[in-house]
From TrEMBL, chains A, B, C:
Family, similarity comment: Belongs to the ammonium transporter (TC 2.A.49) family. Rh subfamily.
Principal subcellular localisation of the protein: membrane
Topology in the lipid bilayer: Multi-pass membrane protein
Keywords: Ammonia transport, Cell membrane, Glycoprotein, Membrane, Transmembrane, Transmembrane helix, Transport
Protein name listed in UniProt: Ammonium transporter AmtB-like domain-containing protein
One GO molecular-function entry: ammonium channel activity
InterPro entries assigned to the protein according to its UniProt record, in alphabetical order: Ammonium/urea_transptr (IPR029020), NH4_transpt_AmtB-like_dom (IPR024041), RhesusRHD (IPR002229)
Amino acid sequence: MVNTNIRLTLPVVCFVWQIAMIILFGVFIRYDEESDTHWVETKAHDNITSDIENDFYFRYPSFQDVHVMIFVGFGFLMTFLKRYSFGAVGFNFLVASFGLQWALLMQGWFHSLDPQTGKIFIGVESLINADFCVAGCLIAYGAVLGKVSPVQLLVMTLFGVTLFAVEEYIILNLLHARDAGGSMVIHTFGGYYGLTISWVLYRPNLNQSKRMQGSVYHSDIFAMIGTLFLWMFWPSFNSAITDHGDGQHRAAINTYLCLASTVLTTVAISSLSQKTGKLDMVHIQNSTLAGGVALGTAAEFMISPYGALIVGFFCGIISTMGYIFISPFLEKTLKIQDTCGIHNLHAMPGVIGGIVGAITAAAASESVYGKQGLINTFDFTGDFKDRTVLTQGGYQAAGMCVSIVFGVVGGAIVGSILRLPIWGDPADENCFDDEVYWEVKEEHQESIPPILEYNNHMIHKQQDL
Amino acid sequence: MVNTNIRLTLPVVCFVWQIAMIILFGVFIRYDEESDTHWVETKAHDNITSDIENDFYFRYPSFQDVHVMIFVGFGFLMTFLKRYSFGAVGFNFLVASFGLQWALLMQGWFHSLDPQTGKIFIGVESLINADFCVAGCLIAYGAVLGKVSPVQLLVMTLFGVTLFAVEEYIILNLLHARDAGGSMVIHTFGGYYGLTISWVLYRPNLNQSKRMQGSVYHSDIFAMIGTLFLWMFWPSFNSAITDHGDGQHRAAINTYLCLASTVLTTVAISSLSQKTGKLDMVHIQNSTLAGGVALGTAAEFMISPYGALIVGFFCGIISTMGYIFISPFLEKTLKIQDTCGIHNLHAMPGVIGGIVGAITAAAASESVYGKQGLINTFDFTGDFKDRTVLTQGGYQAAGMCVSIVFGVVGGAIVGSILRLPIWGDPADENCFDDEVYWEVKEEHQESIPPILEYNNHMIHKQQDL
Amino acid sequence: MVNTNIRLTLPVVCFVWQIAMIILFGVFIRYDEESDTHWVETKAHDNITSDIENDFYFRYPSFQDVHVMIFVGFGFLMTFLKRYSFGAVGFNFLVASFGLQWALLMQGWFHSLDPQTGKIFIGVESLINADFCVAGCLIAYGAVLGKVSPVQLLVMTLFGVTLFAVEEYIILNLLHARDAGGSMVIHTFGGYYGLTISWVLYRPNLNQSKRMQGSVYHSDIFAMIGTLFLWMFWPSFNSAITDHGDGQHRAAINTYLCLASTVLTTVAISSLSQKTGKLDMVHIQNSTLAGGVALGTAAEFMISPYGALIVGFFCGIISTMGYIFISPFLEKTLKIQDTCGIHNLHAMPGVIGGIVGAITAAAASESVYGKQGLINTFDFTGDFKDRTVLTQGGYQAAGMCVSIVFGVVGGAIVGSILRLPIWGDPADENCFDDEVYWEVKEEHQESIPPILEYNNHMIHKQQDL
């Protein structure tokens, strides 16, 4: 018998790590100047006349949308399994709450450690970045949903956030690639990280829990809550940290259009895949989102409205075909069990997004962007002020590769750690079952309608006869 | 047997129309100056000192609220049927995604085609207007919910958006009526459009699917998600495209108050309608929203806080009475089968809203609005700078009539098209059933509690004896 | 037999109170200058150059988040009971809609009645405050959930809002305590108000409705919708009415961090409390929110990021332990039946929040806040310009006591009124049952899977033999 008792490990991990967070925050984290009471002086110094120019007002609405995507979006998207909704929403809640704290530290050390004071100064943009970082780990959770313990998820998140901060530093700072919505940094990395972990944790006898796989009617509707909040708020996701003004404006428009296009082609392919043209909820719940992933890099570029539609068009097709053809292949041939199909929703569209980003960057021109617009969009300043768009395209492509390498190598290492027999993961026949880690009330008595209870009674009487 | 196979039609329509969208967007749609990289120059030219004056920051939070209303609000409001929740949320998702693209084109051609370049320049306000336009079609969907195929819905949306753009052009541009929240343009038009289509598609034997009508406990709670998101975000809906500053501020306050008042009178009438004073979920889900509809035109006016409460007061009464008395009458006498009761939630309150708008416009005065305030609120500039408030009231009423005419005549024509036997609509006995267009997993085995499975087993044994 | 017929009382209360609201609004309530058409002149007078400086843009996004917390957050959090979800969401909707109107009047009379005109001028900040005031009453609803009639809830809200406005006036205006997120004013008051009412209404035979207590699988997922929207938007709640600029910015950051920390310790204690380390949904749904409550007072202070984490750390522990140890004690020994455990989610964390606020205020210093920052944060202006931080700490503690006294004494009085046998409250055996006040459709026929229907048929045949 497998031991799934986590009464020792889970509380210990939660307490120790949370205490570590408190200590590290005490040492390193401070308010940035726009969230500090000294802003009244900073403001005067910077000739800011109105409080509305505080970055809070540029970014807070987008931040809240992103926050909803992380907790309701990812959480509910994974409730589709008939008896793993507690785990889906609840563990998502747990690992995201830990992950965002750790992300503030890791991203702070790599991106914004003040050399003079040795402190990390945080503001609303840091919170968005922390949520983004967590998204990478939640994507990975999708691949192993139902097959791991909450302790394993926390370990996955600890290493996931760490790896994320490093690859992000390499891609955004060293290579100076642009990736505002994280096609590469978030989705490609998170996708391959999760898939590789799932591959290392391969369970040959997973069909022993076949009865718990798949959805029921109501669980599919719950999952649509996740889908829709992700879909609706994706324009905020891709525009949350882009440049003030036209940058945020354009990224939101592009993502809005791209996602609309994805819905139509997803429906088309889903309908084509069934004999009588019926639609499959799995496709509607997932592939409709692929366009948002694929525009993560290019959303802030002048990809033009019809360009956004084209990206969405192909992503809907590719992602839905992924669910139909590639997922079964991955499972049978490559031994990758991908519960939520993150390969089709994040990994593939993420790679497409990286490529789209590289091409559109390489094709950027002063005639389209304007002289200053080009400099602003690609941040051709400081060390990078002489970079050409063609070079930029090359670095974008290099960034793409970095994210894949980090995902695969990192996933292999972390997967190996997670194979240790100390984490309390479920037996093959108990996967996808909330009973393992949750107090689930018995519903038998309540859910039997009176008329049936009567029948039961009659049956027993008959048996007695 | 009726043929509900849509494996050919649905994919073809989705692909062809989406490709048409891409081509038309390529030809016509461009970023407006506030979402273009050239904004850095435009800004300097217009003496704008801070990025925060980009229209994005005035309207994006409202846009996202409206977006939630369209996809989660309308989608979940229609999940109340016991076995049509996939169709409610899923087809809503599909037609809205197509509709918003087509709306950007249609509204662009009519309202903002640049004569010099022949292009349509879009920004965040265009996205809101596209969502608004889609709302009209989703309202119409409510009347035919469960009785049409997704292909029919797409056709309804294609023509609905087209008609919408034309009536909107006549009402807002030619008549110069004000209708920020769309009492006339959105709700009256959408309501009568849907009702007339439903009248043309009358199914005399619809009671053959009686077992599928009505709700179950959980489906009513899902529907409340839709209700609440519509109710909470309606202040954003009515203020999304009103004037910057006090216009948006006032529209939000008025709608907030009006909707609160509606809830109390809805509850009162619902309770009065039952012998023991019990409440009916249908009323709570729908009539509580009537106030938002009815304030669509007047929300930006100086209707005063108590005026908003009065509008809400009567709308709650009238809408709930509609569900109790008028809907059965419409079905029996006028042969209009209105699945969601859009007559009570959109058509009637929309007409009330148009009337309230006409009266409050006609009663506007410089003493209340201030000289400049009056000009700003009713946009008495350019060709209309000599218009009096009384004339304005008349044009508002004329706008009301235009929206009804477009709804009824347009609905009759489109309804006739939808009667063609090529669209794969369900048979009378299969209406309101997701099985027709969706892969619905069999739940029998899973949902039977173990004790019953045992009984079944026993029964079969007994039968064998 | 208990009479639960509310066909007379509920409509009468709704109609009469709503008409009273209309009259009082007509007499007292007007648009404030930023939502009035005269703003065009006011603005010119105040040298405001851009519409974006209208308070609407500082506060509307936060307002909408708070609005979602009130209607979806509180409403769905209480849907956890297996058959009281209509009552949870529906009555929450009703009382909040009445309460916010009454709150605008009560808070207006006490806080912003213009002495010259005798009018109350409202804007977006008033709407937020009205929602806050309603929150106090909805907290109280949590204690009596399932045991009272909607008429009783409306009476509770009428008095609750009244008491709230008075205690708020004493605490914020007379004592000049700071309480932006309402640890004292909202949560402590609301918590003790509800608990005392529940104590007065003690039902010794409540176990007669034991079959209706507790949750089922799906109701627990619905409740998580409430939990997550409360959790995600709490940073908006605590920052909604703080100072423009750094005040709002800092309050949001602090609350975000604090709540993340609470999740980890809640999970830890929940897991510790079960033999095999399984988690309990009751804890996850409720205790994860305690950190937001406890930071209500101090969120706008320079409590520093690690300080916020520490508050969250202890609140998760205390609140979860409350569910495990204190709630059963309260019920058995003190005869307080607390359906939702508001003592653990609101009352205790509210008191902690008051204490944290008093300590952090007393410990504030110019070196941390800056000279002007200190004055701004604690509003040491006018009559209070000579107050020291130590004195401020004392007044904060005094405010804490005022809120408890108002809760307990007010609750005792209102509870006595609610014991009158005229309100139509349910019998002990019908508590927690939607059937009492709602039309609930019979699901027996529909929910029986076909195979079982067949069996029923067979059984009946057998019986006939």
